[in-house]
Write a structure and sequence with these properties.
mainly alpha; 428 residues; 72% helix
Length: 428
């Protein structure tokens, strides 16, 4: 293998193994920042040695053993960690002996628990949502700081600061490397699910930048959701989130046109929807339903997405059921955004006037004051009622509020159509 080929292989190995490697090291050194440094050190050694010696048969185990050796060396020569060395030295030696005799067992033994613990650390409530997302993508997704910054359209230095501060916050708070139990598990699991869904949503409908969707973020969120579902298979909410993301992700290819322009839901070519993802999503939804009698918020949203996925044409969509599902969602997770979406469903099921009545009641809601989809939805409903002048004003207002140029272009086109007295495109 050429040097370039070896480097590509190392990059692939790192993407696959880095989360497990950092998780295993965090279990040993009890410091996620130090664990990542040790993992990076092992990667540097691999970059130095593998071009000459070749990629090992079990590269993950090789990296783990190398990182553990580096951990012992570091702990022994760092006076500030003397106390920790005494506490952990014996455990590290035992792990190294086991690694020497059975590297496969060393890397694979408690890896599921380690990954789950690392997820709970990355998404600990002591961190801000932005920090949770950055740390999750860095440690569990294996993305570089530059890749995260590019995905969220923020300066690389900003992402780097978030990650550094997150590690310091976790260390200062002495967050234990463990899976919480009981009520704390439920609360912390919600934080994990929220972070994963934030990543997915940014990929599904980018808040800014020149593209409307970022498939890489969606794919990474779906992957993390699948991993979490394997680690906690008895948690209905996890399967509900996976179902939601799988079904939503099935539309990605149909959400943009040849030039990257947005294509609204009811105008999409359903032949381009990924049927494998839909089947996987429906299976995850069925699993969530089997685990509990009452569906959680993610499963209810997945059930709504399933109504669209099952409809062969827009006209076959069961809008009455969607309204009922939004009613149920509003009961357990009330929010102005849920009510706005319910208004859209009401309009589709019972006519635009009924939907506009629901939406108009939201115009004084503080969280929606700067939310571009509120005037966008109002514009659509007003246009369907042939109130084109009012609709144009709403679309222009929505265009001013959105930060995404692609979406702004779409909204301005709809405003122009209203100025001509033409029917507006259907809602997304």
């Amino acid at each position: 293998m050429t040097i370039a080929g070896t480097h590509r292989a190392i990059e692939a190995v790192w993407r696959i193994e880095s989360a497990r490697l950092i998780a295993g090291l965090t279990r040993i050194v009890r410091d996620v920042g130090l664990a990542e440094d040790l993992a990076q050190d092992a990667l540097v050694v691999a970059l130095e040695r593998w071009p000459a010696s070749g990629v090992p048969d079990n590269p993950g185990a090789w990296l783990m053993a190398t990182a553990k050796h580096r951990a012992i060396d570091l702990l022994r020569r760092n006076a500030r960690l003397e106390r920790k060395r005494q506490e952990l030295g014996r455990e590290l030696e035992v792990h190294l002996e086991a690694a020497a005799s059975n590297l496969d067992a060393t890397i694979d033994d408690p890896v599921g628990d380690d990954l789950l613990r690392l997820m709970f650390i990355c998404c600990h409530p002591v961190l801000s949502p932005e920090a949770r997302v950055a740390l999750t993508l860095r440690l569990l997704g294996g993305l570089t700081t530059a890749e995260i910054a590019r995905a969220f359209l923020v300066p690389e230095a900003t992402v780097a600061q978030r990650i550094v501060r997150a590690k310091r916050t976790l260390a200062a708070a002495r967050v234990p490397f463990e899976v919480p139990r009981g009520a704390e598990l439920t609360a912390r699991l919600s934080s994990v699910l929220e972070a994963i869904y934030l990543v997915f949503n940014e990929g599904y409908a980018a808040t800014a930048g020149d593209t409307w969707v970022r498939p890489v973020l969606c794919e990474e969120a779906v992957r993390l959701g699948r991993v979490l579902a394997e680690l906690v298979p008895s948690e209905s909410d996890v399967h509900g989130l996976v179902a939601l993301m799988e079904i939503q992700a099935s539309r990605l290819r149909a959400r943009v046109g040849p030039s990257g322009e947005p294509i609204l839901l009811l105008d999409q070519d359903r032949a381009r929807w990924d049927q494998l993802l839909i089947r996987r999503g429906l299976a995850a939804l069925e699993r969530a339903e089997e685990l509990t009698g009452a569906l959680g918020p993610y499963a209810l949203q997945a059930a709504i997405a399933a109504c669209h996925a099952r409809a062969r044409t827009p006209e076959e969509t069961d809008w009455a059921r969607i309204v009922a599902l939004y009613d149920a969602l509003a009961q357990i997770a009330p929010s102005p955004v849920v009510e706005l979406n319910r208004g859209v469903a009401v309009a589709m099921a019972f006519g635009p006037a009924a939907g506009l009545e629901v939406v108009d009641a939201l115009t004084s809601e503080p969280p929606l004051k700067a939310y571009h989809l509120l005037p966008s939805v109002r514009g659509d409903l007003l246009a369907r009622l042939n109130r084109f002048d009012e609709a144009r004003v709403e679309f222009e207002r929505a265009a001013l509020l959105t930060q995404n140029p692609r979406e702004r272009e779409l909204l301005l086109k709809r405003a122009a159509a209203c100025a001509r007295g033409s029917p507006s495109p259907r809602p997304r």
